[in-house]
Amino acid sequence: MDQEILSLAGEKTADKLQELLQAVKEDDLANLLQNQAVKGKAAGALLRAIFKGSPCSEEAGALRRLKIYIRSIQLVESGDLQKEVASEILGLLMVEVHNFPGPLLVELASEFVSVIKEGRLKNGKSLELLPIILTTLAAKKENVAYGKGELSGEECKKQLINTLCSGRWDQQYVIQLTSMFKDVPLAAEEVEFVTEKVLRMFSKLNLQEIPPLVYQLLVFSSKGNRKKALEGIITFFNELDKQHNEEQSGDELLDLVTVPAGELRHVEGTVILHTVFAIKLDCELGRELLKHFKTRQQGDFSNNTCPFSIALLLSITRIKRFEEQKTSIVKSFKDLQLLQGSKFLQNLVPHRSCVSTLILEVVKNSVHSWDHVTQGLVELGFILMDSYGPKKILDGKAIETSSCLSKKPTQHACKLGADILLETFKIHEMIRQEILEQVFNRVVTRASSPISHFLDLLSNIIMYAPLVLQSCSAKVTETFDYLSFLPLQTVQGLLKAVQPLLKVSMSVRDSLILVLRKAMFASQLDARKAAVAGFLLLLKNFKVLGSLSSSQCSQSIGASQVHVDVHSRYNSVANETFCLEIMDSLRRCLGQQADVRLILYEGFYDVLRRNSQLANSIMQTLLSQLKQYYEPKPDVLPPLKLEACILTQGDRICLQEPLDYLLCCVQHCLAWCKSKVMPPQQEKEEEEEEGVYQDLEDLLESITSRMIKSELEDFELDKSADFSQSTCVGIKNSICASLVMGVCEVLIEYNFSISNFSKNKFEEVLSLFMCYKKLSDILNEKAGKGKTKVANKTNDSFLSMKFVSDLLTALFRVLIWRYTSIPTSVEDSGKKEKGKSISLLCLEGLQKIFSAVQQFFQPKIQHFLRALDATGEEGEEVEGSVTHRAAFQIRQFQRSLLNLLSSQEEDFNGKEALLLVTVLSNLSKLLEPSSPQFVQMLSWTSKICKENSQEDASFCKGLMNLLFSLHVLYKSPVILLRDLSQDIHGHLGDIDEDVEMEKTNHFAMVNLRTAAPTVCLLVLSQAEKVLEEVDWLITKLKGQVSQEMLSEEASSQATLPNHPIEKAIIMQLGTLLTFFHELVQTALPSGSCVDILLKDLCKMYTILTALVRYYLQVCQSSRGIPKNMEKLVKLSGSHLTPLCYSFISYIQNKRSQSLKYTGEKKKGKTAAVATAMARVLRETKPIPNLIFAIEQYEKFLIHLSKKSKVNLMQHMKLSTSRDFKIKGNILDMVLREEEEDDDDEGTASEHEGQDKEPAKKRRKK
């Protein structure tokens, strides 16, 4: 039969073939085809013959074709055919589809859909045919019977796709089905059906099947609906991450059903890879992804970002620039800071994830083959460090902040950049070389900018893996070549950072030594200083056998310690030779400039502590150097040859020997050697060293006794001496004075350290201090006269931290006991010095100690407070929390402040009161805001402000600042602001002199003396912060509404949670409006109060406009305007806008009068008049901005009225004139000093229409 069909098919006409096929039953024909196909015998040729003999123009032929098509599809799906045969059959079926009539195409497509829905697919190979069937069907223009009616081909296709997407898909064919749809022309609605169906399938698939499906979905999304596809993918993995984290932190039994973390991260990595490829094919997909993140950042009350979404964003940095995202990171830190500082916002906004935690989690996850993310991480890290590193200030030093609490968002961003790079370096070996190269390049090329953050990063990297860096030793040695050209601070930081590497790499060490030896003889001073600093570092870190262990030193080597110890043990002899060679080189430096010697003296002490076997060499060097400037005859005064320390070259005089630094070095080294090195050693060496120590002690003792006997005249530094910087003698005397004061300081510490608290030694210490003080007073007196320029730059103190801490430890108990036990008022007035009593000095000391501990020793605060409590009366609180201990200290200082406030007015000491408030402010920061002690502190401060009236402006400012800082952590301060504004209005009077004021007295601290500018500027500053918070909330709400409008189905439900936030915003603005209502009626003095009030009013209207625009957005989602919003608009129209115009008129009248008065007072002085005019122009600059802000507010109110069908403009009265320029004729009048005429009143009467109504409003008092 098959041979017959094939032979007839070869004829030119198909008539006989048609007759033969009609005679054969369709089932037999299908079976014949099946047998041939399974055997692999010419199935393609047979199929072509059947199609030739079954023309679609005849009904029988078309039905036969349909039967053959259905059987062929079953054959292909069965898996019984060879691959080549199946492909040939599918190819023929595809070619012939377009010949089918419409009804049969529908039947064929419906059969396909039912096969898919019923799960009858075996291998999915036949799915290649479905896109062609659907495409052909959509192209049919005639109506086709479908179901009970008739539909066009396009509508039939739409119904079939709808049926297919609403049915069940077998898991193993989801990817093929998704791929199939990309070849079908689809309308936007159909694309949405398919996208939603595929996204729903995500949760039903195994994790390993998701990445290829994601890729197919992203390729499919090029037809449209990219946003939904991306959001669906991100949301799915976000939820997976959340589930995983919850299960990990939950019950251990859940681990049995949890997806392994490694598998999830690998899948996410593959998805990121597929997304990157998809974006390369479709750039619009990348733009949509960036747009998605931007929208999320605006309205993220819930945590919209997750590690996966951040990783996705980082992965496209090679395709899209990432610069914009750095501002988003800083903005996240700012948002977090804003939230932490406001209880009002904390109550409204749920807890937010810290962006640092999320990004560092991405770094941690990137170990699981997230190769496309690592480059983005490195780029982000360097962008953050470059953009937000420490900034250079006038004296060239960087601004550094050590306290975590006081760090700015930009500093947090810089630290995050460093953390990203360090963690990426640890995890990814491939990227290490690039990170190191970029860090070294920045260290070398940015020498003029602060690079401490890069040096810290380099130090952390090398500490982590010094052996890894051996592979990068070429880059390190290349960097050494630039040492001579780098600033000293950079050289020291760089060498300290690479120090562990010097221990494990001999080649790096040798190249450094070569560079330093060359630099030692360079012509540039900076190069020689760098060489000395480098050699000192080498001496510190290459120990000679027998040196004290590193545990006795201040610095540890960390991760490289194992290599260091092994290295130093086996090479101790070589180390000794090496170190002694360096010492010889350094001795030559003692003949160089003072700057080089100074570095040497500052470094010797650290070298001695780390490498104690060099003690003899160092002490001998110092002794021989000191003897050059020591007067050996015991009866000669002064004991030091100061002339020899100064170099005179013609007219140029400079310091040759920093004798004070030399003596300081001797004192520290001697003290350390006696305490650490003196215990038993070899006898010969011991005797030799003891001889050196004894000589130095005798020298110091002799210098001390003779310095005490010396008068200032002996140094030629008495009151008659010249200290000006314009003469050679003056410069020389200034240098000598600085040396004498430094020597006194060093001797004070030396004698204190050996005194063992003996009376005689303390008397010597006091005598030395008196010598220091006399000289200091003379210098200050000369500087104070101001006739001659005196070098009064404050030198660094030579007193060590140990000495200061020992002294403070002894004094601190005395300070706190004395201040809390002896009130200032009963103190003997004879003990005052320059207006400061001893008790006041005690309090000042306490205040500085509290500030220093809080700023620099944050982790040790608990120990500090415990030490204080141990001496207090309430011993039972020793085991309490920081809050309890801080509260106990607060109570003591509260009592002191109350005693001071209850004293007579003439006995009130404003400085003491301010210091007490500062101490209380410092201690109150340690209280937990949710604790009863915090609430108690707030109510106490509020009571003090309400019941005490003091005219001291500084005290008032300090106390009010304390009140506000506490209040914002408890609740919003708007009610407080309103009450204070009423008090200010009552004391300063009204801008309309005819209105009688009824004074309110909410806070007695507000009085005529403090109301303006002190309290007024404070309340305006706080109002500005409240406006900033409200603006932040409105921005977030607008971002949310934008998202909701894009996803229609969520809009009705998602807006409900915003109601409490909207209500809070309106309440805040309403209360602030009453605050401004009071201040714009107040007769404020010209200057900063008026300027800042105008600027804040401008902000107020800008934020009201933002709120109106938000409701314009909301109205689009069929939600009306709340009643309280209508009330707010009404209040602004009746209680603020008219009064603003009246206030502007008041300012302009006042300033024109001031200008006229200046002109009359200074007739003929054109410069004075010009200055006054410039001031008036500057001060009136905010007025046009305010008018514009009011007009913008009213403009958008009109739009909102139209959209909401609510007349919001009924309470607004538009002003009659909007011109607020300074009139030219008035300026001419002032310049020509003409008499005042009618034109003069133009500015004052500009807003006459607004002046009448507000006057009625103000008479409410």
From TrEMBL:
> Which residue intervals make up region (Disordered)?
1232-1261
Give me the stretches of Acidic residues compositional bias: 1233-1243
Stretches assigned to the FANCI solenoid domain: 64-280, 373-536, 800-963, 976-1227
Instruction: Look up the domain of life of the source.
Output: Eukaryota
Q: Which residues form the FANCI solenoid 1 cap domain?
A: 1-53
Which segments constitute the FANCI helical domain?
Answer: 284-365, 550-779
User: InterPro entries recorded for this chain?
Assistant: FANCI (IPR026171), FANCI_HD1 (IPR029310), FANCI_HD2 (IPR029312), FANCI_S1 (IPR029308), FANCI_S1-cap (IPR029305), FANCI_S2 (IPR029315), FANCI_S3 (IPR029313), FANCI_S4 (IPR029314)
What ranges does the record list as Basic and acidic residues composition bias? Answer: 1244-1254
* UniProt protein name: FA complementation group I
Which organism was this protein described from?
Felis catus (Cat)
Question: What gene name does this entry carry?
Answer: FANCI
